[in-house]
Write a structure and sequence with these properties.
heterodimer, A: 132 residues, mainly alpha, 4 helices, B: 231 residues, mainly beta, outer membrane lipoprotein receptor (LolB), chain A, 2 helices, 14 strands, globular
């Protein structure tokens, strides 16, 4: 009886320890996930897809290069009153998301520009061929 | 962008009373984002005669912020961690600049290229509508100022297609050496998630000749390596 009680207690303590370990390991991830989500939403609202589509369309390779190089200004009020861990995570996620949006739309603009140019060439060739 | 440029201009041209290096004011900032818990921040702001702005956050964390044009330093004294943000454009904290913005004639709008479109007067009230410079017209269609007896009581900015994007109310004006300033500012702006509200309350504005000794003139200690970000 005593052995049964002690083994039950041991099992309970083991389960409790494992549960607390899971809580400790998951809590920081949840904190980081929320911080990153805040940063991604801010970057998404602050980064102009139209601007970078235009840059890729008009400047082609230079526009795409600029998208990789130029970093947009973050909303600095978002870090006021936040701890150092939050600021570090927010900064990283904001930069990553903003760069991702910029490069994506710059490539789309560049591709659209190339497609229009190809269609133009095909049309010109067609006209020249038909006139001969 | 226009709001930031305006407030930066105001911050950059601040001045303290002759013989004083800094203007100090206590503040509480309450932010109410949609679908998120409120954020309450308390601290002190020090406006330097040279144009720098120093902010000491006392709650919920101990955080020191220094803004000098295109650079912002953030230092955590207890954790001994620091960040330095640099940008090609001036970095601003609108809530810090808002306190002194009303001391400028017409909110300083003419000095950054805004032109007045219309002025309506009714008793002690004056409502003026301002058009932004060409560079800003893609983001801001107009800014409307409402003044009562010379004090700005409301500012509204409209995005293209006459969509209200920000509204700010200014209350409880007091006189200081720099002019009349509001001790209560209630702002709000449109975000993708909804309307965000911001309440600012200021107290104890005073001019001082130097920063408090415990703030060590807001310098990051030499043995603390800051994390640098170039925007």
């Amino acid at each position: 009886m005593k052995f049964f009680r002690e083994s039950s207690i041991m099992r309970f303590v083991t389960v409790l320890a494992l549960a607390s370990l899971m809580f400790v390991t998951t809590a920081p991830k949840a904190y980081s996930a929320e911080t990153c989500e805040d940063a991604r939403q801010a970057a998404s609202s602050k980064t102009s897809s139209v601007l970078w589509f235009g840059a890729g369309c008009l400047l082609n390779g230079l526009g795409v290069l600029g998208a990789y190089v130029i970093k947009p200004d973050p909303p600095m009020t978002s870090i006021v009153g936040k701890d150092a861990m939050y600021v570090a995570k927010y900064t990283d996620c904001y930069q990553d998301e903003a760069s991702s949006i910029q490069t994506k739309w710059a490539w789309i603009g560049c591709g659209a520009s190339v497609a229009v140019y190809v269609l133009y060439i095909v049309a010109v060739v067609g006209v020249v061929s038909s006139s001969m | 962008m226009i709001r930031s440029a305006l407030l930066l201009f105001v911050a950059a041209t601040l001045y303290a009373a002759p013989g004083s290096e800094y203007l100090r004011v206590n503040f509480t900032r309450s932010l109410y984002p949609p679908s998120s818990p409120p954020e309450i921040v308390q601290g002190n702001i020090y406006y330097s005669q040279q144009g720098a702005v120093h902010i000491e956050i006392t709650s919920p964390v101990n955080q020191l912020i220094t803004m000098t044009g295109k650079e912002m330093q953030v230092y955590y004294p207890k954790e001994r961690k620091a960040f330095v943000f640099q940008s090609d454009n001036p970095l601003t904290l609108p809530f810090a600049s808002a306190f002194l913005s009303s001391t400028r004639e017409s909110f300083g709008l003419p000095e950054i290229g805004f032109t007045v479109e219309s002025v309506q007067r009714s008793g002690d009230s004056v409502i003026s509508s301002w058009r932004p410079p060409p560079a800003g017209r893609g983001q801001v269609e107009k800014i409307v100022l409402t003044e009562v007896k010379g004090d700005i009581v409301k500012t509204e900015s409209y995005a293209p297609k006459a969509k209200l994007s920000t509204r700010t109310l200014y209350k409880s004006y007091v006189g200081i050496s720099q002019g009349r300033v509001p001790l209560e500012i209630y702002g709000g702006w449109q975000t993708p998630k909804g309307w965000t509200k911001e309440n600012l309350s200021f107290s104890g504005p005073t001019t001082i000749t130097s920063l408090p000794a415990n703030l060590n003139e807001f310098k990051i200690p030499a043995d603390v390596v800051p994390r640098r970000s170039k925007w």
